Amino acid sequence: MTRRSLLEIPSGVQCFLGDEARLRREIERVAADVFRGWSYEEIVLPLFDFDDVFTRGGGVSSTDGVYRFIGRDGEVMALRADFTALVAKVVVSRLSKRELPLRLFYSGEVLRYQPPRAGRREELFQIGLEHLGAGGVAADVETILVAREALSKLGIDDAVFTLGHVGFALELLAGVEEPERSLALEALRRHDRDGLRRIVGTASLDLTALSGGVEVIEQARDATGSREALARLEAVVSELSALGLERQIRLDLSEVRDFDYYTGLVFEIHAQGAGLELGGGGRYDSLLGRFGRELPAVGFYLSLDRVSELLAKRGVSSPEGDVSSVGSLKESLAARERGETVRVKS
Amino acid sequence: MTLTLALPTGRIFEETSELLLSRGVKLPPSVRAGRRLRIEADPFTLVLAKDRDVPTYVEHGVADAGIVGVDVLSESRPDVFEPLDLRIGACRMVVARQASRPPGFYRDLSVVRVATKYPAVTTRFFHGQGIPVEVIPLAGSVELAPILGLADCIVDLVQTGGTLAANGLEIDEVLFESTARLIVNRASFRLKTEALRGLVHRLGGAPGT
Prior knowledge:
Chain A is of the alpha+beta class.
């Protein structure tokens, strides 16, 4: 057998250098400052946990490429595959006495095996927050305001938030049993009108008419008779518009997102020049119940990887500051005392 | 707003061109010459790509939309919108065996050796039914494999069945029917909604509209 070079890397691993590393750190700092500015408290979460925290607890499906290993005591463990499930677990177990709502944010990597293809990585750096204990429109709107401010402070003023409500799809598919139900949700997610028609026979529903501006809500109400989900979505949209976000809001009622724990509002964040979503989130009112405490919650994440790629593409960099070149270690101490960045000549 | 549209240069190229022409999309002669890979055809920028690369360009957003067969989509399963069945390029994905073998004979084998250009589709189909499969990936002319004894059967796309018959093969089972689809990048659909919705209606409507 040929011996592998020590320099060979397994697929999926990455390292960041120079400007890119500085830019990533800067993005993390700016986002964290904004989150703290809205009274979100940082929570540092474990890098691994029992596998079922992510699968049975969270919405990660067993085929989602979770990195699993057997712990020393024989239990199936998993590398962090999602933050939200971990937050839920900590909130139920450790923060039960805290006053509600709880506002928490996190920052770090999740790991998921992905078949190699453009734009998909295995180590995904996410910065996100969770707003727990409030079920109202105000909490939904707050998370979007925070996301908007974070992106805006990062120089992305043109972020577009595409809002949907998973309740709409569920109302639409009421009475449809598995396995058709999953197929129908997938068809809806892919805007595959003909596929959806084959599965559930909703003859005339034009899926492209489910996305667009505010008028979409009215059209969908007429076409489907859906009520509750659309009313809630309308309330969120009108509050966001009143706060001046109208230009940045789109609607897509076929938006259901990947995780099965979402129960209400869902949203995706895009911006010109990024071919993949910059982030997303939504309401997950039943997730905490799985861990033993019924608590409504809403949250979102930003992909540090994609935000950083977009900023780099737009010519934003994070250059090194001024450096004082000093001749001796003694001089360097004085310069450091003055707060300068020093480089000792050797 | 200019849309970048990825067109497949393979099997469904002719039908795709005809469809676009019939919907009033003017294709410059350079499209047919097939040398230039990026062509301005106002209001579109056309990108001429290998069939299998179309989903890659669209998923990554360097093309806003593309035209590609279900056969290719089933193999690569890109995360894109699929708003329109264009109803062109119809064919079937089939399991074919040598005519001398009885139908479904491979179900009795301990492992079925299958030659194909579609390894993912093949594995899903056989494993989904609990049949162990050894996929032999080939780049083309998979009909040769059973003749030479390399494989027990093949999974391939069949239009008329002429090539199968000429090589002593016949269809054993149909996996699915394939037609061409319009696929759209998820982010583009958010950011260029009107233009893309216009494209969907243009390609989905009656000819000449």
